[in-house]
Every structure is written in structure tokens, then in C-alpha cells.
Design brief:
Layout (H helix, E strand, L loop, with lengths): L2 H7 L9 H9 L2 E4 L5 H18 L15 E3 L9 H4 L2 H11 L2 E9 L24 E7 L11 E2 L26 H6 L12 E2 L7 E5 L4 E2 L11 E8 L8 H4 L2 H6 L2 H7 L34 H5 L6 H13 L4 H8 L17
Antiparallel strand pairs: 1-7, 2-3, 3-9, 4-7, 4-9, 5-6, 5-8
Helix pairs in contact: 1-9
The structure holds 2-oxoglutaric acid and fe (ii) ion.
2-oxoglutaric acid binds next to strand 8.
Length: 354
């Protein structure tokens, strides 16, 4: 099912975004819908985050990324139904379609900067190969009020139109950064952790949804007053790009069955086949990546998901070095290249993965 068809089946008419919202996304790289979810809905999701976090402890986020000072939980839809309302966030789906065309779920990660912690260097989450080459739409769903003192996300409006900065290594894939022009070079701050001229700190009440282009320069900031700041990062990517978490590998029977065909085609994978009655496969033994930043695993899967193509000597050498330096990712790569039918994931179990 193609994206527009799926969106129509899900009740989107094409009028979900105002011209102003589209313009703000195109020109500024973000827009905010205040109080999209009620405080009660936000609180229920926040409480479920705490329950999942209590269960997973310091392993939280292990499927994608573990960040010291900011507990995370990933693969949330397979673990609980509590976040299902976020699967139907119409303005977000409309924004993803506006930005990406054909899209699918990329990742869903909860993040909670601890008192005195959570500051990140300025970064983008994904590369881009040319001016308007958008890879990921990110929504921050706020479970608590996001205020000046509890670690608001900082963003640099309009910077999605600039060169990518500080792209997480695992998301680089086959991207080779172009040499910077003097103008681009002048934009690069000496200190990526320092405030950037023109940056905004996002503040909004619990239940708000901040839709942003992941190519916009941004970062987490330190939680100074210790008030909770739990956020869901819900990301969508183009269908030809790798998912952060390969949904096919983690899909539980429960999630599969509670989704409509339109939801499956948008969010799980494309095509999404009902897994055959094979014994469950052991989920990948992904090691935690402790670099700062959130959109991590997945890029190395790109070649396997998108088919091979001629590669230059430089890329071959770089690729070989990459696998030598990251032997733990090899299993992932091989697994994703396989054409076997998907089998059910085991969302509740942590032990085989770490
Ligand atoms: O949670 C935040 O404020 C931003 C986090 C972020 O950008 C990331 O982890 O990549
Ligand atoms: Fe980020």
C-alpha cells in the first residue's frame, strides 16, 4: 500500500496542515502544536515510560542507543499499547508525507534527561546529499512541560537549509561530506556544546508535539532544575532509507494484530508480511552505543536494505575499516541482508540482546 492510500484509509484528508505550518516546516525546519494531547494522556504515557524504565534500568534504549545521564527506552510499540495514540498523530503523519513522500516508521525512543545532565553537542541526526534532501521527520511528544530550566531542546531555526553538522557516525552510511564553502565553514562553531547564535529553546506544555526536520541543527540541553522532562522522539523516514530499528525484527504478534493494514504498511515495513509459523529468532545482539545523540543504529543497514551498487575504492576501504572497528555490528548487517521471512520479536525480553 502506498503512503497516500494508507493515509486516506487512516482518515487523513490532506488538509491536516495549514499553509502556515507547511511554510514554517519548509523555511524554519519545525512547527509546534501546543497541547495536542491532553495532560491526562501525557501523564499516562509518562507513567508508562517510568514503568518501562524501571523494568529495563540502565539497559534502557539498548536496541538503539544508551545515553549516560538521559535514560531511554526504545522499541516502545512492541512493549506496550500505552503509546498507540501516537501512531495516529495526524499532523505528524501529514508533515512526514509533506517532507518525505513515501515514508515508514524510523524509530520511537523515550528520553529523560536527569538533573544536571542531558546536554548534547549541536548536531543533526542524519546527513543530506543536496540542499533539500530530507531523510527524517522527528516529532517530540512532550510528556511533561518543557521549560527553560528542565533541559529544553535547543534548535537553530532555518539551519536545515545549511550543511549537516556533527552527523552521528553510525548514520553516515555512504554519505561523503562535500568540502565546505567559506560561508559554510564560517557557520561551524568552535565549541559544539556552546549556545549557538540565534538558537531557540523549545518551551511548551505537556501534551505538545514539536514536529521538526532532523536535518535542523539541534541538541538536548542540561536539566538544570531537575523537573522531569520526558519526551518521545517519534521518527519517520523515506521508504528507501533504513529504519533506525528494523521493525520486521522486533515485531510482536500483538502489535501486528492490533494494527490495520494501512498502519502496517506505514509503520512496520514495506511490504509487511505476516510472519510464518517459524520458531522465534533470537533478536540481534546489539551493543549499546554510548555517544551522545539519539538517532543512531540503522545506517549500516542501508546497503543491505537498498541493494548493492558499484562502490569506489575509497568507499570499499572505508567500509572495511568500519566493519573492523565495529565487529559487533556485523551480525546486524548480515541479518538484515537475509531474505528470510520475518518472525515475531520478543519485546518483553531483554536478556538475549545484551
Ligand atoms: O531530547 C532532546 O532534547 C534532543 C535529543 C536529541 O536530539 C538526540 O538525542 O538526538
Ligand atoms: Fe538529535
Amino acid at each position: 500500500m502506498y503512503t497516500k492510500q494508507a493515509l486516506r484509509e487512516l482518515g487523513l484528508t490532506g488538509d491536516e496542515l495549514s499553509d502556515g505550518q507547511k511554510r514554517q516546516l519548509d523555511e524554519q525546519g519545525f512547527f509546534i502544536i501546543e497541547s495536542f494531547y491532553s495532560r491526562a494522556e501525557a501523564r499516562e504515557m509518562a507513567e508508562e515510560f517510568d514503568r518501562l524504565h524501571a523494568r529495563e534500568g540502565e539497559k534502557g534504549g539498548h536496541e538503539v542507543h544508551v545515553e549516560p545521564g538521559a535514560p531511554r527506552v526504545s522499541n516502545i510499540y512492541n512493549k506496550t499499547q500505552a503509546f498507540d495514540i501516537c501512531l495516529n498523530c495526524k499532523p505528524l503523519l501529514a508533515a512526514a508525507h509533506h517532507m518525505l513522500g513515501e515514508f515508514k516508521l524510523h524509530g520511537a525512543n523515550l528520553r529523560d534527561p536527569l538533573p544536571g545532565k542531558g546536554h548534547q553537542d549541536l548536531h543533526v541526526d542524519v546527513p543530506k546529499k543536496f540542499a533539500d534532501d530530507w531523510w527524517v521527520t522527528n516529532a517530540l511528544v512532550l510528556f511533561d512541560d518543557m521549560a527553560k530550566d528542565n533541559g529544553p531542546t535547543r534548535i537553530v531555526p532555518g539551519s536545515h537549509l545549511w550543511q549537516p553538522i556533527n552527523v552521528p557516525y553510525v548514520n553516515i552510511g555512504d554519505w561523503v561530506p562535500a568540502p565546505l564553502t567559506p560561508e559554510e565553514q564560517a557557520r561551524v562553531p568552535k565549541d559544539l556544546s556552546a549556545p549557538y547564535p540565534g538558537e531557540l529553546q523549545v518551551t511548551a506544555p505537556a501534551g505538545s508535539v514539536v514536529v521538526m526536520n532532523s536535518s535542523m541543527w539541534h541538541g538536548g540541553t542540561r536539566n538544570n532544575n531537575g523537573a522531569r522532562r520526558r519526551v518521545l522522539h517519534l521518527t519517520y523516514t523515506r521508504r528507501d532509507l533504513p529504519q533506525q530499528l528494523v521493525q520486521r525484527e522486533y515485531l510482536t504478534q500483538d502489535l501486528y494484530e492490533r494494527m490495520s493494514p494501512a498502519q502496517r504498511s506505514c509503520w512496520i515495513s514495506n511490504p509487511c508480511r505476516k510472519p510464518s509459523a517459524q520458531p522465534p529468532r533470537v533478536p540481534p545482539n546489539a551493543k549499546a552505543n554510548t555517544r551522545a545523540g539519539g538517532i543512531r543504529a540503522g545506517a549500516h543497514k542501508h546497503a543491505a536494505q537498498c541493494g548493492s551498487r558499484p562502490r569506489s575504492l575509497v568507499r570499499i576501504v572505508r567500509g572495511t575499516l568500519f566493519w573492523r572497528l565495529n565487529p559487533h555490528l556485523w551480525q546486524h548487517h548480515v541479518r538484515n541482508g537475509s531474505t528470510t521471512a520475518p518472525t515475531w520479536g520478543s519485546a518483553g525480553s531483554l536478556s538475549p540482546r545484551n
